[in-house]
Amino acid sequence: MDTHRTAGSKDDGNAQMTALRWISVIISALIVITALVIGQGFFDGAPGMITGHGHLGNLIFTLAAVQLAIAFPGYQRGTIGRNHLLLHGFLIVLLFAQIGLGYSGSRSGASGALVWHLPVGVLAMGVSTVNSVLFWVRPGTSNAT
């Protein structure tokens, strides 16, 4: 009896799931790129990179919001589980906090906000990776006997 399906399964031809899978990968990749950009901004003294870091953060949040808007109908139809939807909601909360911490720290010079910015970013990376894995490998049936 099958225990899981992958992206290549016959019942995965749904455009909604394809969009959710690829957006989840893009979000995770952009989080890594955002970290690289800020590293270059701080260590190479490139202030334009710091601005780019903020713009990428806004883009990531927007993509996550679009992904949630696509995922919710899937949850209602039963193609996405409740825990997966809650995990994605947690990602949205983390990204919202991350943007707030970034802007409050950069505008007011509040080092306390920036101190939390890094660990929240690491947590967001972990949650986005789990989110992506859950979109690509879903419970169901597999070819195991």
Distinctive features:
145 residues, mainly alpha, two-stranded antiparallel sheet, 4 helices, 2 strands, 3% strand
Structure description:
The protein is an all-alpha fold. The chain has one domain. Helices cover 78% and strands 3% of the residues. The chain contains 4 helices and 2 strands, in the order E-H-H-H-H-E. The chain has helices at 15-43, 47-77, 82-108, 111-136, and strands at 4-5, 138-139. Strands 1-2 form a two-stranded antiparallel sheet. The protein is elongated. The N and C termini lie close together (5 Å).
Total DSSP helices: 4
Calculate the terminal CA-CA distance, rounded to whole Å: 5 Å
Helical content band: over 70%
Q: What order do the SSEs take from the amino end to the carboxyl end, as H and E?
A: EHHHHE
| Spatial ordering of strands, largest sheet | 1-2
**Share in β-strands:** under 5%
Q: How would a crystallographer describe the biggest sheet?
A: 2 strands, antiparallel
How many strand elements? 2
Rg, nearest Å: 17 Å
Structural class: mainly alpha
Query: Can you tell me the residue ranges where pLDDT is under 50 for at least 5 consecutive residues?
Result: 1-13, 140-145
Estimate the mean pLDDT confidence: 83
What is the total number of structural domains?
1
User: Can you tell me the overall shape?
Assistant: elongated
List the helices and strands and how they pair.
Blueprint: E1 4-5, H1 15-43, H2 47-77, H3 82-108, H4 111-136, E2 138-139
Antiparallel strand pairs: 1-2
Helix pairs in contact: 1-2, 1-4, 2-3, 3-4
Short account of what is shown:
This protein is mostly helical and 145 residues long.
